[in-house]
Amino acid sequence: MGTLIKGGTVVSSTTSTPADVLIEGEKIARVAPLIDATGHTVVDASGMLVLPGGIDVHTHLDMPFGGTVSADDYEWGTRAAAIGGTTTIIDFALQSMGHPMSEAYATWRAKSEGKACIDYALHMAVTDLGPNDIWLDEVDAMVAEGISSFKIFMAYPNVLMVNDATIFKLMQRTAKLGALVCVHAENGTVIDVVVQQALAAGNTGPLYHALTRPAVAEAEAVHRVVALSQLAGGARVYIVHVSCQEAMLEVAAARANGLRVTGETCPQYLVLSLEGNMGKPGFEDAKFVFTPPLREKKNQAPLWQALRDNVLQVVSTDHCPFRFADQKTLGQDSFTKIPNGGPGIENRMQLLYHYGVNAGRISLQRFVELTAEAPAKIFGMFPKKGIVAAGSDADLLLWDPAAKYTITAATQNMHTDYSIYEGIQVKGNARQVFSRGESIVDGGRFVGHVGRGRYLHREVAAQ
Ligand code: URP
Ligand code: ZN
Ligand code: ZN
């Protein structure tokens, strides 16, 4: 006896087919037209799209940052993700300087244990190779633990930033293993000079966070890290949160040269803009202080084009929530003290569907590819995750293309007291969400149990 999803349209990156889906236990047993319902519990999916559960590969739950801790822990963050149609996340274990990666791994496993509502994996954010590079060997150990991607920050000097030597050595190791290096690409050293000059001129308000981080500083870092990956013997690189045309063109050039470079952008860069959402009186702009900052609106069309052209392969959120009332206000006297990050884990699928599919900017198939299939492939989870097919985990969404929903902090599940998308009305939303065969969201309500999410051991991917 299984669960039969009947009468929906099953979507993959290449097809859109009327078909039934039979779930047995945690797996998809069959995808075929008109499966006999005898003995099965039937879920009526007529009028629904049956999509693979979303995969968000860039989240920061329960993360110490900017003098505080991100406002969603593993329970709240993954619950909000599930309600928005995401059934897998990859979060970051953050190595503390002076401490081994294994310690960060243990810390983040403990943070998530008994809390996660959906399946999750970890990247290792590398900040320190240790005395005589002793912790470089941990890269192999982490891959053995299922961490097949590593994160480096080229920004945030004295906090998370690593120098080119560290990047190069890490890449030499990952190139041998086939592991992936995810990169926050911004020239942190130069940005720091511009920041100090702004402060010296008395420009301390939140808008100056954006004005001191030019697009060229992002593009320069992408260019440099791509060169380092070449020097290191062809390391696989994934550029996170590409926010502007200049940086995107560097990714495009690398790919045109046949290099193993992939990348993502995030809804905030596709939907919001510097002139549209910042420049408000008082401290309001602090709600939009994340890094890279909001860019001029003219960047949005090139980013959409990059998603269509496969210059960028993934849309993630970079969900790093902080409350306005008591966390963002840490930077009331200086934008440098505003915790960097914004909430979004709940809204990624809605926003990309509405502004992408409904607006004719991307096809339905590309939507599935950007939100589920490509992340699964790039990050070593395919075909367990990322596709509605026999043998895969039964992570799937009944997506109602006609459902209207207004995004607002008043009803959201993320634990922030504001939404960067406040008042936006979207059409298209998850009606029911299955995770490993279990219905965990029904009609916008989480109906699973806390702690059911499992740690995912990821393989080294081929892409
Ligand atoms: O502002 C952001 N994005 N905060 C999270 C850390 C990062 O840079 O991804
Ligand atoms: Zn970043
Ligand atoms: Zn991030």
Molecules bound to protein: N-(aminocarbonyl)-beta-alanine, zinc ion
Mean pLDDT equals 98
Poorly predicted sequence stretches spanning 5 or more consecutive residues: none
Label the structural class: alpha/beta
Shape: globular
Largest sheet: 9 strands, mixed
Our Rg estimate from Cα atoms comes to 21 Å
Helix content: 25-40%
Tell me the number of helical segments per DSSP (H or I, 4 or more residues long). 13
Tally of extended strands? 19
Distance between the termini: 38 Å
How much of the polypeptide forms β-strand, as a percent range?
Answer: 15-25%
Short structural description:
The protein is 29% helix and 23% strand. The chain has 13 helices and 19 strands. It is globular and about 70 Å long.
What does this entry look like structurally?
With 463 residues, this protein is α/β, with parallel strands linked by helices. The longest helix has 17 residues, at 215-231. It has 13 helices and 19 strands. Helix 4 packs across helix 7 and helix 7 (215-231) packs parallel to helix 8. It has helices at residues 74-83, 101-112, 138-144, 164-177, 188-200, 207-211, 215-231, 245-256, 267-271, 274-277, 300-308, 348-358, 364-378; strands spanning 3-11, 16-24, 27-32, 41-44, 49-52, 54-59, 64-65, 68-69, 86-94, 119-125, 149-153, 180-184, 236-239, 261-265, 314-315, 396-406, 425-435, 438-442, 445-446. The two termini are 38 Å apart. Strands 1, 2, 3, 4, 5, 16, 17, 18 and 19 form a nine-stranded mixed beta sheet that branches. Strands 6-9-10-11-12-13-14-15 form an eight-stranded parallel beta sheet.
